[in-house]
Amino acid sequence: MSWRNPWSELEVLRRELDRALGIEPGRSSTPPRVAFLPGRAARAYPLTNVSEDTENIYVQALAPGLDTDKLELTVLGNALTISGVKKGIEGVRPEAFHRSERAAGRFVRSIELPSEVDADRVTARYASGLLTITLPRAAAARPRQVQVTLG
Asked: Which of 58, 32, 59, 38 has the alpha carbon at shortest distance from 48?
């Protein structure tokens, strides 16, 4: 019985996928990381935590440098959309940067929530770069205790 290297098999599979997708040999199949351009990568900002209890769903979004006047929260069914503008550094010419890792500009992020919420009672607070959103569950989405009777 001969031993097969699983890494080389994965490399062959990657090359076949690249060829099927029309990616030239030698080019990276990973798209460049651009947080504020349209497409899949744009949904990575802001970074979020989603938690819940029996009454509410909580979303915490790490988003320093937001312009709160241009921040929009939209709730539809069981989806929350956060959009807005992240301010850039003012007074510095682009050619003066040696490194620029903090992107700025418009962003949109949609988050699927675990259940429907009451959009009329949603509250949001922004402090110290953390956006905290409380989304009360819709009455139909709350757990209900069912009484069992003998008989």
From this structure: 59
